[in-house]
Amino acid sequence: MAKYYFPAIFDPGSDGSEGYTVTFPDLPGCITEGSTLEEAFRMAKDALEGYLYGMEEDGEGIPAPSDPKKLVIPQGAFVSMIEAWTDYIRDEMENKSIKKTLTIPKWLNDAAEAEGINFSQLLQFALKERLGMVKKSEPDTKQ
Q: By its UniProt entry, which PANTHER family does this protein fall under (predicted)?
């Protein structure tokens, strides 16, 4: 599994507003924010996973994370290590459902609906079968 740890700087800013801006010194452009500390941590994990997933997909090398003790941070900010699992993001992206619009004759639609056929499931099964991807334990295509 592709698991990474990178230091993130959580900066509350100095303008008196609520929330935190989160940056990753080793990953230019990987920036997020949260209205609360809890939200900032959640958003940091999400941003890091998405950023690293994109780097992997583009064939870019993932840099080594900096030593958190050596980072220079703004007054009032703090550093925390953030964990990222890009395999989970990859699975989510590869299994993302896509809506397709298709046309079939009305009589065929009526007959299939009368039999309780799940159109999405049947189309997926037919495509897998056509592409030679059918597993022995594929589910029944009726609802």
A: ANTITOXIN HICB, UPF0150 PROTEIN SSL0259
